[in-house]
Specification:
single chain; alpha/beta; Aminopeptidase; eight-stranded mixed beta sheet; 8 strands; binds zinc ion
Length: about 280
């Protein structure tokens, strides 16, 4: 089906290589190459805005008996640690005891322009209404049709420059907090400060770094729609602080944020591989 376009996508030149300065990490062409050469990858759609062309890629690590994880990142283009960590994780994982379905980069045009939204200024994250309304969400929703998961892990960063300053790491879980959130917080705490802010993420409270989100249905977010359709049991958002201080420096540098995201992915995967009751109330 879409697989035969893989070779074409590999040789096409992305014009944004020259516009976006991501040299320390990946150019668009490098990232594309890495995505397309991941084992178990397939093109699930293409994003085209003016002269920007980029394939939407999903990668699967199949396992018929284990739990099922949906790992997604890059919904917000200006939160780079997720797509980089996901790619690096997938590159090194072939044989796990769980089934992993991943879409490492949900908003490629935003990612390569360091923009929260896509190149049309639309927030991809909030385009999963019924029906989905962007090139990205249409392709992703179509690919996920009829798929069910135990848990969705969504890698974001806290870049809220409003009145809330996370000053550390936190997790959002919906529809309620379970033991897995606490395990992740404990693991991340070994290397990184957990938030001590009073209020977070739209002025919500939290319990030692765990925010509970109860989405109102109907909704326009991918994870919330999957929850509504009972195609995931729970959803986690990983949120390392990416706020810049007055000098323009990140409180947690990108390299460290990538490491945090990898820790989160590894912790979730390792717990799902055991008989740990990830839905147990914390
Ligand atoms: Zn985000």
């Amino acid at each position: 089906m879409l697989q035969e376009t893989k070779q074409q996508a590999l040789v096409s030149i992305d014009p944004y290589n020259t516009i976006v300065d991501r040299k320390p990490v990946f150019s668009a062409e490098e990232y594309k190459q890495k995505l397309l050469t991941l084992s178990g990858s397939q093109i699930i759609g293409n994003v085209t805005y003016r002269n920007f062309h980029f394939p939407l890629v999903a990668a699967e690590r199949k396992n018929n008996v284990g739990k099922r994880l949906l790992l997604i990142s890059g919904e917000h283009g200006d939160e780079p640690s997720g797509p980089i960590a996901t790619l690096e994780f997938l590159k090194n994982q072939t044989d796990r005891k769980i089934h992993i379905t991943s879409i490492p980069l949900l908003n490629p045009s935003g990612f390569f322009c360091n923009s929260h939204n896509n190149l049309e200024g639309v927030e991809v994250y909030a385009s999963y209404g019924n029906p989905p309304s962007t090139q990205e969400s249409i392709a992703v929703w179509n690919y996920l049709r009829n798929k069910h998961f135990d848990l969705a892990l969504c890698l974001h960063e806290d870049s809220d420059t409003g009145e809330t300053f996370a000053n550390g790491f936190y997790i959002i879980q919906c529809p309620e907090a379970t033991a897995i959130s606490r395990k992740i917080i404990d693991k991340v705490r070994e290397t990184t400060k957990i938030t001590d802010a009073k209020r977070l993420w739209g002025n919500r409270g939290h319990d030692h770094g765990v925010v509970v989100w109860k989405p109102n249905y109907p909704t326009v977010y991918l994870a919330a729609r999957l929850l509504k359709e009972k195609r995931i049991k729970t959803c986690l958002f990983s949120e390392p602080d990416a706020i810049q201080n007055r000098e323009g420096k990140h409180e947690i540098p990108l390299k460290e944020r990538i490491q945090i995201q990898k820790t989160v992915i590894n912790t979730v995967v390792e717990l799902l591989e055991t008989d740990f009751d990830y839905m147990e109330k914390s």
